[in-house]
């Protein structure tokens, strides 16, 4: 049982770290002359850097809010798990922890979908590729969802 709990905690922390990295670092969309993330859109033209902040569109603010909410909900789920681990009755399920983690996964999925659909308004129409932060956000979604489902299914034993 201890190995199972340790595995679940590691899965949860991995999802939380991926959410943090994908929200903070600047690589959602990249090309040789620019990079774009949730906070800035930086372009280099003739060796001059120009960065626009993310306050230009409602959709990017929605993505920012959803990603921050996913971090908050995932962190709260981790704290709730440890609280429930010591206070939950034997045979009880970790429903609240699982619900918070599933909400975190849905928030990151929604944010990534909105960014995918709307990023052409934010990124110049040149050749670009999705960066590592964007990929990490999509990887964090199933990890958070799976850990949320495991919490819902998991029963506290002796």
Automatic annotation (TrEMBL):
<protein>
    <recommendedName>
        <fullName>Peripheral myelin protein 22</fullName>
    </recommendedName>
</protein>
<dbReference type="Pfam" id="PF00822">
    <property type="entry name" value="PMP22_Claudin"/>
</dbReference>
<comment type="similarity">
    <text>Belongs to the PMP-22/EMP/MP20 family.</text>
</comment>
<keyword id="KW-0812">Transmembrane</keyword>
<keyword id="KW-0472">Membrane</keyword>
<feature type="transmembrane region" description="Helical">
    <location>
        <begin position="127"/>
        <end position="154"/>
    </location>
</feature>
<feature type="transmembrane region" description="Helical">
    <location>
        <begin position="58"/>
        <end position="82"/>
    </location>
</feature>
<dbReference type="InterPro" id="IPR004031">
    <property type="entry name" value="PMP22/EMP/MP20/Claudin"/>
</dbReference>
<dbReference type="InterPro" id="IPR004032">
    <property type="entry name" value="PMP22_EMP_MP20"/>
</dbReference>
<feature type="transmembrane region" description="Helical">
    <location>
        <begin position="94"/>
        <end position="115"/>
    </location>
</feature>
<keyword id="KW-1133">Transmembrane helix</keyword>
<dbReference type="GO" id="GO:0005886">
    <property type="term" value="C:plasma membrane"/>
</dbReference>
<dbReference type="InterPro" id="IPR050579">
    <property type="entry name" value="PMP-22/EMP/MP20-like"/>
</dbReference>
